[in-house]
């Protein structure tokens, strides 16, 4: 890279930075319902809970978790769904790093994963996860809170809205493309 190219590269980087800041401002204004035309090709796509529901139910994930095929999630199915979701490398066990990531990304507090590793082999197997979740009532609050129609069962839509609300930390009803990419693709992407 010669000197002129290097200068151009720096300019490009600066332009990119300003564009990012501009888009940040754009998002900020959108929250205030001010219209915002983004005329460059880097459109900020925003995902709401309908998009989230459609994407999450577009594959067989929910059918797989609904072990008794009754169309709703009971406690056990709910617990298993998080084991499978958090097992991001799909090797059938939860590692320390997977649990730490899940703890951060799903805002889990007060879980002592070491205790759940009952055979102390360094990973949490499905049966350990089920025992641990049951003994600590880890998922009870979500299960109850997400059950919007309070019928004691979780439907698909209640499930996806629950996860959506977890991630929509500013509660504006939207996830940015960055949030979507970071969270959705990591845990539910195919
Ligand atoms: Ca079921
Ligand atoms: Ca794993
Ligand atoms: Ca273990
Ligand atoms: Ca329900």
From TrEMBL:
SUPFAM superfamilies named in the record: EF-hand
Protein name: EF hand
Species of provenance: Pontibacter ummariensis
């Amino acid at each position: 890279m010669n000197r002129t190219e290097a200068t151009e590269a720096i300019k490009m980087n600066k332009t990119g930075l300003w564009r990012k800041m501009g888009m940040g401002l754009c998002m900020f204004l959108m929250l205030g319902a001010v219209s915002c035309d983004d005329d460059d090709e880097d459109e900020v796509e925003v995902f709401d809970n309908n998009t989230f529901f459609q994407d999450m139910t577009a594959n067989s994930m929910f059918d797989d978790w609904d072990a008794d095929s009754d169309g709703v999630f009971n406690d056990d199915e709910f617990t298993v769904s998080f084991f499978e979701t958090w097992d991001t490398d799909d090797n059938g066990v939860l590692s320390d790093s997977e649990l730490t990531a899940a703890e951060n990304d799903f805002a889990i507090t007060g879980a002592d994963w070491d205790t759940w590793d009952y055979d102390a082999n360094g990973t949490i197997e499905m049966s350990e996860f089920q025992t641990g979740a049951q003994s600590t009532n880890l998922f009870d609050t979500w299960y109850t809170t997400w059950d919007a129609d309070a019928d004691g069962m979780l439907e698909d839509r209640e499930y996806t809205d629950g996860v959506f609300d977890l991630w929509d930390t500013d509660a504006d009803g939207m996830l940015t493309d960055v949030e979507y990419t970071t969270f959705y693709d990591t845990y539910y992407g195919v």
